[in-house]
DNA sequence: CTCCCTTTTTTACGTGCGTAAACTTTACAG
DNA sequence: CTGTAAAGTTTACGCACGTAAAAAAGGGAG
């Protein structure tokens, strides 16, 4: 049952009885050799155990066929979903992806970038940390390899390709919905871990002003940069309710995880959010976390189209790779959010 | 501001004014060259932009310093947490990790394994899919590289190093708790995506028999292998309650995500699970998903010690790598679960 | 200044495969 | 059977670095 192990293409060529360059061509694409030799090679491969050396393969190629992906944080279903879609899109585009997680540490992010550069990856997709991200790292990446930002865009890098959600639209959409169906919402901010936090906040304020309402933001934490969104949401709303607010407001949370914490706070105060009761407490989120349909009550939110974002970012990256327009005009693609009306608002 | 780009060590050696082998030694460890030359090299490095080629570096080395990690599914906070801990543990052990996600597809899992073998990784950590996993792939991995299984262990591979949770203990623990504090629980099974599903089920049955109660399992789906645990939990419990069960049972769910679905079903039937009411509905989970403290009611569960699992698996893998005992006696390490009593049971 | 040891340089080869050019074989039509 | 194009082989070089051995340079003690 144990097949003899063959370590190099040279040995393999000898074992099968073809020349090494022919083998090389076969591995690049079996159609490049004659049908009969192709079969001969296939039969030979079935008889031995051989895997071409990854490093040797990439060492002397113009293109490595690798796309590097840097994600800030994995313990968040939004990012794991996004990453999954990105990997699948890249696979379909014929690239293999190597993904690294920053663990919300700029040093690790920089290391990942360094590592990708040293691998001569064909391109890099980065979902950046917030202000913590080292701007120099992004600069270097951009000047060396095809480079696209996803999800969140540092204000310091205006001329970079970017694919993300149109937060003005998405946040505006749910703000407008909340105003239309009930009282104008208060905005429960999230820790400023990235630039989307601020973008949503600003979008909320703009839409409120547009509709002639007075915007109110609670839960701003300029200093702390943590990812304990649920605890943040619960603490802020709990304090808010304890301060004597009667719980007949609409609360728009900066994201679903904050909203889940808020739902919890409401429940602890004996309140049951929902759009049914006129004037009652309502809570809405943002992102359409997979758990939203299962919270009690099910969370009304606005979905980010991360599938489209993933596909678009990969296809943009591939376009840059193909045409080598490293210095071309930066392209910004923003996708609309979609309202998911459930029970909580 | 722009530093001149240096592509090869040779160019770098010339630019700095030392020989290439000296540089090579410096990069392996700066202590290997004289203090003065070390400083000279450092000053030189500061003046140019140079990153050593990753592939060339690994091509001709006995050890690549890479650990490959294969995870079955990323859109689950348990696995993303586990992966995070594994990455950090490996980092601390001086290895860089490359992680691949199977996306619950045996073909992708096999491809990832292939890829790791072609990279001559020093070792591989695999959290396998269930019965879907290709046993041959694991066999090949084991016969070629240091190899450790994590989280779930195929019954077909008894003589492999394994690190995971002691489900007999953990499930027994919560079963015993539920029996002690209220009525003996019904077990709400999860889709059989891996072997843990069955292990927990068996552990529940064993503990119930031990305590002299009649075990009851609902929600078994032998065919479907999906990861929509919440929907599964909601559907099963909803049907169960609709069948006229009065909702005064204890429900032990196979994992927290199933339990979150069950909580939802309970809420829709007007029931509010909790240990407070004598004889009322109680719902418990397994895993201690990060969201458990924030569900309504907060979910009572039993935590897996994934931090310990991650550390132990990496340290076991490193031990195998160091001693080259590929054929040594397989070691199984099981970690106990810890009861997390909250509100739901 | 000389001897001896340490550090560095020179030189050379190896890693596994891509790739190009020149040459030889094979296939098929005429 | 012959000519020609396609397919295959041989040969040779390159990729960027690891590594070993020999030769040269440096540094301190006597």
How does this structure look, described?
The structure is a homodimer of 345-residue chains. Chain A is of the alpha/beta class and 345 residues long. Chain A has 3 domains: 9-52, no CATH class; 66-164 and 307-336, Rossmann fold (3-Layer(aba) Sandwich), CATH 3.40.50.2300; 167-303, Rossmann fold (3-Layer(aba) Sandwich), CATH 3.40.50. The first copy, chain A, has 12 helices and 12 strands. The first copy, chain A, has helices at residues 9-16, 20-28, 35-47, 54-59, 77-92, 106-118, 135-144, 167-181, 195-210, 229-242, 256-268, 306-323, and strands at residues 66-71, 96-101, 123-126, 147-150, 161-165, 186-188, 217-218, 250-253, 282-284, 301-303, 332-335, 338-340. A 6-stranded parallel β-sheet of chain A has the order 2-1-3-4-5-11, sandwiched between helices. Chain A has a 4-stranded parallel β-sheet with strand order 7-6-8-9, sandwiched between helices. In chain A, α1 crosses α2 (20-28), α5 (77-92) packs across α12 and α10 (229-242) crosses α11. The first copy, chain A, is elongated, with a radius of gyration of 25 Å. Chain A starts with 8 loop residues before the first helix and ends in a 5-residue tail after the last strand. Chains A and B meet through α4, α5, β2, α6 and α10 of A and α4, α5, β2, α6 and α10 of B. Chain A binds a DNA duplex (30 and 30 nucleotides) through α2 and α4.
């Amino acid at each position: 049952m144990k097949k003899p192990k063959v370590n190099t293409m040279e040995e393999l060529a000898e074992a099968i009885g073809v020349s090494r360059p022919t083998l090389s061509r076969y591995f690049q694409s079996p159609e490049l050799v004659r049908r009969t030799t192709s079969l001969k090679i296939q039969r030979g491969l079935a008889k031995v155990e051989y895997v071409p050396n990854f490093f040797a393969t990439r060492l002397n190629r113009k293109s490595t066929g690798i796309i590097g992906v840097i994600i800030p944080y994995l313990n968040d279903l939004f990012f794991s979903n996004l990453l999954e879609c990105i990997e699948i899109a890249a696979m379909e585009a014929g690239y293999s992806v190597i993904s690294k997680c920053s663990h919300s540490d700029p040093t690790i992010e920089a290391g990942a970038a360094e590592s990708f550069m040293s691998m001569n990856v064909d391109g890099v997709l980065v979902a950046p940390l917030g202000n913590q991200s080292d701007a120099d790292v992004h600069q270097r990446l951009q000047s060396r390899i095809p480079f696209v930002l996803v999800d969140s865009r540092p204000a310091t890098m205006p001329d970079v390709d970017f694919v993300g959600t149109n937060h003005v639209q998405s946040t505006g959409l749910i703000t407008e919905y909340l105003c239309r169906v009930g009282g104008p919402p208060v905005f429960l901010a999230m820790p400023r871990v990235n630039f989307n936090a601020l973008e949503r906040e600003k979008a909320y304020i703009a839409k409120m002003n547009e509709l002639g309402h007075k915007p109110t933001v609670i839960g701003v934490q300029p200093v702390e940069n943590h990812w304990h969104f649920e605890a943040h949401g619960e603490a802020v709303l709990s304090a808010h309710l304890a301060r004597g607010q009667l719980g007949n407001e609409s609360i728009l949370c900066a994201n679903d995880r904050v909203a889940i914490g808020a739902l919890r706070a409401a429940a602890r105060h004996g309140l049951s959010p929902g759009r049914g009761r006129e004037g009652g407490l309502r809570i809405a989120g943002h992102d359409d976390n997979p758990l939203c349909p299962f919270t009690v009550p099910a969370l009304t939110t606005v979905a980010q189209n991360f599938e489209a974002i993933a596909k678009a970012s990969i296809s943009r990256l591939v376009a840059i790779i193909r045409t080598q327009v490293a210095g071309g005009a930066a392209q910004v693609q923003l996708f609309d959010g979609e309202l998911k009306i459930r029970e909580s608002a």
